[in-house]
Amino acid sequence: MAESHDGIIVAVAWTTPDVVVSAFEAAAGDVRVVRMRSDWGVGRRTRLVHLSMDVLRVMWAARRSQGLVLHTVGAQAFVAGAMRRLAPRLGPDHLVVSDFLCPASAQYLAAQRWALGGVDRWACIRTGDIAWLHEHFLVPSARTSFVHFPSAGSTSDFGDPLPFALPASFVYASGQAHRDWDTLVAALRIAPVAAVISVPDAVANGVAATLPDRVTVLPLVAPHHGRALALRASVVVVALKDTHLPAGPWSSSMPSRQEPPSSRQTPTAAGTTLSQVPPRL
Question: What is the Cα–Cα distance from 154 to 149, expressed in whole angstroms?
Answer without folding.
Answer: 16
